[in-house]
Design goal:
There is one protein chain. The protein has two domains: 231 residues, D-Maltodextrin-Binding Protein, domain 2, CATH 3.40.190; 186 residues, D-Maltodextrin-Binding Protein, domain 2 (3-Layer(aba) Sandwich). With 499 residues, the chain is α/β, with parallel strands linked by helices. The N terminus and C terminus are likely disordered. Keywords: Membrane, Signal, Transmembrane, Transmembrane helix. Belongs to the PstS family. This is Substrate-binding domain-containing protein.
Length: 499
């Protein structure tokens, strides 16, 4: 029997090992594989769907920014998507032998999703939160929905739910890093006390990408942006609040709080507010972002918890990037990536406002083209303008779905029974996409494929855990789940015969 158990254990260990490897797409001929950010995943899902219609084959697993960065550094995947820089993933060290560059790909924002009811049991849809109250909630110092700091901003309402149930990301997450960077810079005293209470150890200036357990009372950790949003929006989510990229609020119909910015205005994370806030972002020479001025932007429209996401690719030695050490090992991959990035820079920005993001400003679309030139001696970016790039920002627009509803009237106890997130991920954009100029015929299609996708609806949300999973990976996951019970049943049968 001991030998039988050893065999069963060996089979299980093999299946676990294969299943783990299968969770990340392996390099395959003609397939570009990526992994990482859940924050940007809704945008990447749109871009991959469009690329497939145009003859480009990409897959993407949403296993979180830190995991994506690590798999990229290990050369397991072709590209990573992340909000967490290497230094955050490596706990302060940015040293690596891997060739890489950061490429801003989309602008987004952290929404504060909630599920609340007034004392009559009606859903509350107009929650207003100051930046300090948000910091107080997510450091465990404000624990009641009926705290005067909250009710005073919401017309004196009393909420049916009293205890604030905080939902955070349990795994290492770039979204967590962005949000707690906001908390650290907005309410430093609250953050310092929280950091000490939770025994968080991190070097100065390095974003915290995971909150260690045990959590404060009434806190829950959930893995994945989609699961977090789904949980809060569900019938079991009463009293909950969590942080997540705004697109997930749209996808799951969750309410998003109105946040008071530095000018005193109440704003939600629609494209117009994201774009205005990011005018205050400072980009370092490697294009990573310093967001301290975004959090305190005095622009009336600015949504203060806005940020860019990055794609990471290898790059050939370049005079302006000491991290560029070697190109893609396969020039065909570099050419595929160049075509996809060219699409992301322009046509890929057209539908971003409809799915919870904001198009890149023109200078960052141009930076995508500059990054293409760094990837390979044969890859050449182009100079963009309103005549050859359909990014709506080149024509002074943000595209369809860029603006949200006005803030609820002061003192109105339950502003509306209608969800404030009225933008629909399935809304059909106008052909002009906010007045963007049309590219020439040669630029209509990515890689020479059909350009018809540009007038289609945004890609429907279909779940992100994981996205782009291959048939082989699915088979391995089935084996991972199915073989252990079979081994156990077989062992039990042998054992009964021996008896």
């Amino acid at each position: 029997m001991s030998r039988l158990r050893s065999v069963a254990a060996a089979i299980l260990a093999f299946v676990l090992a294969v299943g783990w490897l299968g969770a990340v797409p392996a390099h395959a001929a003609g397939l570009m594989t990526g992994a990482g950010s859940t924050y940007a995943a809704l945008a990447i899902q749109q871009w991959i769907g469009d690329a497939k219609r145009s003859g480009l084959n990409f897959s993407y697993n949403t296993n979180g920014s830190p995991a994506g960065v690590q798999f990229f550094l290990d050369s397991t995947i072709d590209f990573a998507a992340t909000e967490a820089e290497i230094a955050s993933v490596n706990e302060g060290s940015a040293t690596t032998s891997k060739s890489y560059q950061y490429i801003p790909d989309v602008a987004g924002a952290t929404a504060f999703m909630y599920n609340l009811h007034d004392t009559a049991g009606r859903q509350y849809t107009g929650l207003k939160l100051t930046r300090d109250v948000i910091a107080g909630i997510f450091t465990g110092e404000i624990t009641s929905w009926n705290d005067p700091a909250i009710t005073s901003q919401n017309g004196g309402i009393r909420f049916q739910e009293d205890a604030i149930k905080v939902v955070i990301r349990s795994e290492r997450s770039g979204t967590t890093g962005l949000f707690y960077d906001f908390v650290q810079n907005t309410a430093p005293a609250r953050f310092a006390r929280f950091k000490q209470k939770q025994n968080i150890v991190s070097p100065d200036g390095i974003r915290i990408i995971q909150i260690p357990t045990p959590y404060p009372a009434n806190w829950t950790g959930i893995e994945g942006s989609d699961k977090l949003a789904q949980t809060i929006a569900s019938s079991n989510g009463a009293g909950m609040i969590g942080y997540d990229e705004f697109g997930y609020a749209i996808a799951f119909g969750a309410q998003s709080a109105w946040v008071q910015n530095a000018s005193g205005n109440w704003v939600q994370p629609y494209a117009a507010n994201i774009s205005k806030a990011l005018e205050s972002a400072q980009l370092r020479p490697d294009l990573t972002q310093d967001l301290r001025n975004v959090y305190k932007s005095a622009a009336p429209q600015a949504y203060p918890v806005s940020a860019y996401s990055y794609i990471m690719t290898p790059c050939a030695p370049a005079s302006d990037r000491n991290t560029c050490k070697s190109p893609y090992y396969d020039d065909a991959r570099a050419q595929q990536m160049a075509k996809w990035l060219d699409y992301i820079a322009c046509d890929g920005q057209v539908k971003m406002a409809q799915i919870g993001y904001s198009p890149l400003p023109p200078n960052l679309s141009q930076e995508i083209q500059n990054s293409i030139t760094r990837m390979s001696p044969k890859a050449k970016g182009r100079t963009l303008n309103a005549g050859n790039c359909r990014n709506p920002q080149f024509s002074g627009s943000l595209g369809a779905g860029a603006t949200g509803p006005p803030p609820p009237a002061a003192g109105k106890k339950n502003p509306s029974a209608t969800p404030t997130n009225s933008a629909s991920p399935g809304a059909n954009p106008s052909a002009s996409a906010g007045g963007a100029g049309s590219s020439g015929a040669g630029a209509d299609a990515v890689g020479g494929g059909s350009g018809r996708w540009r007038d289609d609806k945004p890609v429907a949300y279909g779940g992100l855990s994981p996205a782009g999973i291959s048939g082989l990976t699915a088979l391995l996951l089935i084996l991972l789940v199915g073989i252990p019970p079979l081994v156990g049943a077989f062992a039990q049968r042998i054992k009964s015969r021996v008896r």
